Amino acid sequence: MSTGRRDATVDLIAIPRAVVSLAAEVVHSMERAVVGDDRIRTARGNAWEAICADRARAHQRDEIRRLVAALATDSVATSPAHGTAAEGTAESTAGRRETSASTAAS
Fold it and tell me: With pLDDT > 90 as the criterion, what percentage of the chain qualifies?
């Protein structure tokens, strides 16, 4: 008569894994039934949505840059101080040259 002992070790971690796996499968099946096969979110769908969102943000950034550039060129071109400052600088430089030339001649 053989009195061999049976190995009756039970992996305690395997039971929760099985329960979680079964729960995930049930949730996935329910999502398919409620939402439909064509509307289930997938990694590919998420990636495409992210690409579209990035493109939309890039388009908005470009539009804002164009508007800011247009406002900057309009404000510089229509600014009365801009034209006066450029003329005033040229006139003051010419005036300094005349003054230094007349003091050097005296």
Answer: 34
